[in-house]
Design brief:
Blueprint: E1 6-12, E2 17-22, E3 29-36, E4 44-49, E5 52-57, H1 64-76, H2 80-84, E6 86-93, E7 104-105, H3 108-116, H4 125-138, E8 144-148, H5 158-161, H6 167-173, H7 182-195, E9 205-210, E10 214-220, E11 223-227, H8 248-256, H9 262-271, H10 274-279, H11 285-293, H12 297-316, H13 318-321, E12 326-330, H14 331-336, H15 338-346, H16 357-362, E13 369-370, E14 379-381, H17 386-400
Parallel strand pairs: 1-6, 6-8, 9-12, 12-14
Antiparallel strand pairs: 1-2, 2-3, 3-4, 4-5, 7-8, 9-10, 10-11, 13-14
Helix pairs in contact: 1-4, 7-17, 11-12, 12-15
The chain binds adenosine-5'-diphosphate (ADP).
Length: about 400
């Protein structure tokens, strides 16, 4: 196909905006960058292009619109050759509620539907919405697509997505488990199928996305049938600064006996818990491994708790899958921490999992491959590519819009 064919992906977080320009056919990243610390005096735009790095200060008043304005100026100047090759724009949106089981071309009614989901994801969707609106104004001639983190998990059966609460809370308020990291888990399912030479609709995978946020997904015949995040990204695994699963009665106790307000609970559960809360040192796995090496007891306990919870979830996901073709580690921790992989698999030998220690040490820092012993259950490491999933969906829908 001739003509413009690159995709700009935009990912608005709570105080950052990440972007890439990517070739959706090959996955090649032509430009990659981010705006960090938005709203503060250190706000800045940084990028890598043609193996060169650049930065530019942003003003503290710059919001997502300001960042997109700064990008447009660069597209009118030094990046004009890339601009001419842009075919479409893909936006990552965390929450698509029950309305979106696939990515979608953005129009007014889609914008309204994303706005309606803000209630379900108050920390995430408003940022995505601002990015979308600024980008619709800045690039009116390009088709724009929303890619939802929740969409891949819309195939969960009701007995997996419902909480055992009064059914009316689901019926009247859509309170249920939605799951996140859908683009990453979908990529892991599709890539595993390629590696194992199995059709995507026949592959069964347990996908462990372990980054600052962490979630597990059971993929059966290529579709998500269970996942560890819930209504919000708080449920499930231990994360960098989020607690994961808790006894909900503990929240009542914190409110009643210790006088925690809702704002204090939000801070406690999302920002002060997880690896950070237990170690009393850091939310960062690499830093904790270093500290553990020097005998820091809190770091060691936090990492052990992380792996134990993860191993229990992996064992649980053999229930919906029955036959597991591959267990896959991905995300910053899953791709790089041979210690976390070894500790986790150590709990799972009764299921038939055994690591090949040399492969486990060798496959890190962006490489892909098998880390299990030959003849035992398959364990893979696959670097995730959420931006490529977004770009592929974006071009598929943009071409359909022709
Ligand atoms: P995010 O969810 O923000 O995208 P990432 O997927 O980049 O996060 O994962 C960040 C996590 O990966 C951090 O805890 C970091 O310490 C961990 N990590 C990155 N490299 C290594 C490494 N070499 N060893 C252990 N952990 C690592």
């Amino acid at each position: 196909m001739s003509g413009p064919r690159l995709v700009l992906t935009i990912n608005c977080g709570s105080s950052s905006l990440k972007f890439t320009i990517i070739n959706p056919e090959t996955g090649e990243e032509r430009l990659k960058g981010q705006a960090d610390a938005l709203g503060s005096s250190s706000a800045a735009l940084s990028w890598q292009h043609d193996e060169k790095e650049g930065t530019q200060k942003l003003s503290p008043g710059d919001d997502y619109e300001g960042v997109i304005g700064a990008l447009v100026k660069r597209f009118d100047g030094p990046w004009s050759a890339l601009r001419e090759q842009l075919r479409a724009i893909g936006h990552r949106v965390v929450h698509g509620g029950e309305q979106f089981a696939d990515s979608t071309l953005i129009n007014d009614s889609v914008v309204s539907a994303i706005r309606a989901c803000c209630e379900l994801a108050p920390l995430h969707n408003p940022a995505a919405l601002q990015g979308i609106q600024a980008s619709l104004l800045a690039f009116p001639e390009l088709p724009q697509v929303a890619v939802f983190d929740t969409a891949f998990h819309q195939s969960l059966p009701d007995y997996a997505y419902l909480y055992a609460l009064p059914y009316s809370l689901y019926r009247d308020h859509q309170l249920r488990r939605y799951g996140m990291h859908g683009s990453s888990h979908r990529y892991i399912g599709e890539r595993s199928a390629e590696i194992l030479k199995t059709p995507t609709d026949k592959i069964n995978v347990i996908s462990a996305h372990l980054g600052n946020g962490a979630s597990l997904c059971a993929i059966k015949n290529g579709k998500s049938v269970d996942t560890s995040m819930g209504l919000t990204p708080l449920e499930g695994l231990v994360m960098g600064s989020r607690c994961g699963d808790l006894d909900p009665g503990l929240l009542l106790h914190l409110g009643e006996a210790l006088d925690y307000s809702l704002a204090e609970l939000e801070q406690l559960l999302n920002r002060n818990s997880g690896l950070l809360g237990i170690s009393e040192l850091s939310n960062d796995c690499r830093e904790l491994e270093e500290a553990m090496g020097k005998g820091h007891a809190g770091a060691s306990l936090a990492l052990k708790l992380f792996c134990y919870r993860l191993a229990k979830y992996i064992a649980a996901y053999t229930v919906p899958l029955k036959r597991v073709d591959s267990l896959v580690f991905t995300g910053g921790i899953g791709e790089n921490s041979s210690w976390v992989r070894r500790e986790t698999i150590g709990w799972l030998s009764q299921l038939g999992y055994q690591l090949d220690n040399k492969r486990n040490e060798d496959i890190r820092f962006g490489s892909e491959g098998q880390i299990s012993k030959d003849g035992t259950l398959d364990i893979l490491v696959i670097p995730t590519r959420e931006d490529w999933v977004i770009a592929r969906d974006t071009i598929r829908l943009a071409n359909r819009a022709l």
